[in-house]
Amino acid sequence: MVEALHQLDGYWRILLDESKNLLSHRWDDATKTYPRRDVWGVGNGWAAAGMIRVRAMLPEGYEAQKQLLEQRIRILLDAAFRYQRQDGAFHDVLDDPTSFREINCGQMFAYTVYRGVAEGWLEESYLPYAEKSRAAALASVDAYGLVQDVCGLPFFDKPGVAAEGQAFFVLMETAREKWNSISDRR
Question: What does pTM read for this prediction?
Answer without folding.
Answer: 0.95
